[in-house]
What we know:
116 residues; seven-stranded mixed β-sheet; four-stranded antiparallel β-sheet; 11 strands
Amino acid sequence: EVQLVESGGGLVQPGGSLRLSCSGSGFTFSSYAMSWVRQAPGKGLEWVLSVNSVGGSTDYADSVKGRFTLSRDNAKNTLYLQMNSLKPEDTAVYYCNANLIQRDYWGQGTQVTVSS
Length: 116
């Protein structure tokens, strides 16, 4: 059974930091490009960042450049998202996605709330 499990979400004050994790199982994690996608309250899905299968190439949405860092540990089948200088507009459910050609897997999401 394919599983992606996100963790690390929570409530943080503006300017604070959080680290999200996404653990994969049931598929060859190291072969998949991985992404974080978020959904703010009342809005659609927004792509945030992606990393290729070996971790050598990362793409970031302009809204998070310089604040968010994406990394992966293929030995641990885990994707990480380090979020710094968080803003209220970063409030969303963050979903982990694994993609390989026509195979597309999603996690259940983890809530991140940035508020004072």
